[in-house]
Structures are given as C-alpha cells and as structure tokens.
Amino acid sequence: MTLTATSCPPPTPQRLGELLREAHLVTEAQLQVALYDQQEYSQLRLGEIFVARGWINQRTADFFADEWGWVRGQSLRKPLGAYLHQAGLMDTTTVEIIVQEQRHNGFRFGANAVLLGCIDQQTLDYFLEHLFPEEKDAAPYVFNSKQTLIQPQSEILAAIRRSQPPKDPSGTAPFELRERTAPKASAPRPTAPAEDADIAWIG
C-alpha cells in the first residue's frame, strides 16, 4: 500500500512550543521561559532549550519539530503504541508491559497507559484527536480484534522496530541555561488519577 502525506512545513519555534503545550508535554509557563531563553541563546532551537531544561527529551523535541506533520498526513496508521514510542514518550519495555496488561484486563492500550502512569490523559487525548479521531470516544474495553487501536503484540513491536530509536533518551544537553526566577516553570506533570471514575476511558 502506498503512503500519501499532506505537505506540511516544519513548525516555527512559536508553533513548536504551542504543539508541545497542546499535547500537555510542557506548560504555558515553561513555554514562555523557553521563548525568553531563545532571545538570549539565539543559536539554540526552541526544542533544544526544552531539552536543556529537562522538560522533554531530545527524541520528543525532534518528533514534534520534524515528524509530526508528516505522521498526521499519513493515510495508513500504525498502532498507537508505535507512535508514542516514536515520539520518545515510552520505550519498548513499557509498550510490552502495557500490551500484557491489556491482555489481562481487556482495557485499550491508551487507557492502560494512563492507568499505569506512563502518559497523561491529556497527552493521550491529543494523540487520539489528531491520529485516531474516530476512537476518541470509544469504550474502554476491547470488544473485538478488528478495532483500530488494538493490535497483536507482534504487530506493535514490529512497528516500533521500524521507527527511529530515541537519539537522546536521557534528555541531557552539552550546555546549561541560566536560572529564571519568573515565570516559575518547574511544575510537575500530573500523574494518573487514583480513582478509576476520574479517568476518561478512551484509547
């Protein structure tokens, strides 16, 4: 099957920050700090600043800067876990654990990822909205093997192996940025809710 993709220019620095904020991978305060940093460190890309401050890893920055537009334009979809791995949001071992849990409890891949604290509900919602809009309001349980987000473990792992490995999973950078006192931007990312009733059962 031939893949077709929509022509999509690379995001501008401001737009890259907005993408990461909309995906709940950085906060508004962190975005503003990074934009302020870029005025002083004009040789750095915005994604590099996010990485230098430890807010995301390099693979995630590269994915949204260079690959997200192309991924959205594809007519053939890979499993959800493969995209989360490609974006540097989880490694192969984590995907395997989620798939095993999926087989045990019958929940969808995304719902298990949130329950296990691997990603935030808002980040899952962002990926579903843009890649699998027809699945965003689907039931949390797997009713048959033909549903879009449910794939055999071998297919998920094969798709992951075809994607690029994280370039810098540690998120480290060979430079340091000076501390900013305002706006304060080190708020921890929310973890998965403790009560099942608080989770939007999608994905």
From TrEMBL:
It comes from the Bacteria. Residues 161-203 are annotated as: Disordered. This is DUF4388 domain-containing protein.
